[in-house]
Amino acid sequence: MTAAFYPIGTPGQPWGAPERAQWLARQAVQRSYAGEVLGKIDALRGRFDVAAYGELEYPQGRYPLLAIRSRGWDDALPVALVTGGVHGYETSGVQGALAFVDRHADDYAGRCNLLVAPCVSPWGYERIQRWNALALDPNRNFVPASPAPESAALMALVAPLRGRFLMHIDLHETTDTDESEFRPALAARDGKPFEPGEIPDGFYLVDDTENRQPAFQQAVIAAVAGVTHIAPPDAQGRIIGSPVVAHGVIEYPLQALGLCAGITGARFTTTTEVYPDSPRATPAQCDAAQVAAVRGGLDFALAA
Fold first, then answer.
1. Strands annotated E in the chain
2. Of 68, 162, 195, 199, which is the most buried if we count CB atoms within 10 A?
């Protein structure tokens, strides 16, 4: 008999409605979206335009989805998209996006239009959770007729601008809880065996297999290397199971996997991953690494 590796469900059997309800009952609010995210967005309203692009309605509450836009939007300029909090538990993606807008977005006025969705999954942000309230991973559901409302709302925001995006950078983290909680939960939900992996110590990027931009990726890596360390490959030359194709870079087929960084059709796309549990990095460094990644990517893309 297969030993259970997660406290919900029966090994080898995908979850049904009872298991999803049991999982949902375990999720508790641990921090405030209103206080830690919406409050910071409100403080930016004097300098930037803020638009609601949707609202999540879950039994546990309603969550406005907000995007920050360049003031004086110019249709003659290219558009750059910054997204954070697609996985709500990945704190530096959210706070890094907000810090970039506050400290550096003005530097790009007149050069591009910035569109920043700092917290795509606020229900997950409050519960420090990878999934949404439906036990779905938003970052595997950027697909047509998406069952994840977080993903569907962001795609609807982006759709009218497709063809005008120069860059999209999606800010993420890889944490120890990926291995202790979220990957075991995923295997249990899908009725599959859990196969332990290895968490890389450091920052890395995910390029698009179908739209490789190696020089762009290395420009971002170089910018971040001044802030925090870059993840080395494991003994097999891989990071999270994927071959390392360049210093700190792996590749995924973004659209085929339903990943956020594949939604714009931009020339330059990447997904960042920082490691906040590293003994060599602080939360402030992780936020700063995300800011550096956005700036490094923008500077390269605008000069290309």
1. 49-58, 61-69, 79-84, 113-117, 165-173, 204-208, 238-239, 242-243, 249-252, 268-274
2. 68
Strand, coil or helix: what is 114? strand
91 contacts 283 by C-beta, under 8 angstroms: yes
pLDDT of residue 4: 61
Longest CA–CA span in the chain (Å) reads: 64
Bridge-based pairing state of the strands 268-274 and 165-173: parallel
In the chain, alpha helices (H): 17-25, 33, 39-43, 91-104, 122-127, 149-158, 176-177, 183-190, 214-225, 283-303
In degrees, to the nearest 5, what angle opens at C-alpha 129 toward C-alphas 3 and 193? 25
Q: Both tokens of residue 240?
A: 């999270």
Least confident span in 93-97, 135-139, 197-201 = 197-201
Predicted confidence at residue 2, as pLDDT, reads 44
Q: What is the dihedral of CA 140, 141, 142, 143, to 10 degrees?
A: 120
The pTM of the full predicted model, rounded to 2 decimals, is 0.97
* pLDDT computed for residue 5 by the predictor: 79
User: Nearest to residue 289, comparing CAs of 220, 189, 236?
Assistant: 220
Q: Which CATH superfamily is domain 17-303 in?
A: Zn peptidases (3.40.630.10)
- pLDDT over 90 (residue 281): yes
Distance CA 72, CA 159 (A): 20
User: Rounded to the nearest 10 degrees, what angle do helices 91-104 and 283-303 cross at?
Assistant: 60
pLDDT digits (tens, 9 = 90+) for 123-161: 999 999 999 999 999 999 999 999 999 999 999 999 999
Q: Which residues contact 226 (CB under 8 A, 6 or more apart)?
A: 292
Residue type for position 211? N
Which residues are designated catalytic?
A: 273
Q: Which two tokens stand for residue 137?
A: 């991973």
Instruction: Give me the mean pLDDT over the 90-99 stretch.
Output: 98
- The two three-digit tokens of residue 300, written as one number: 């390269």
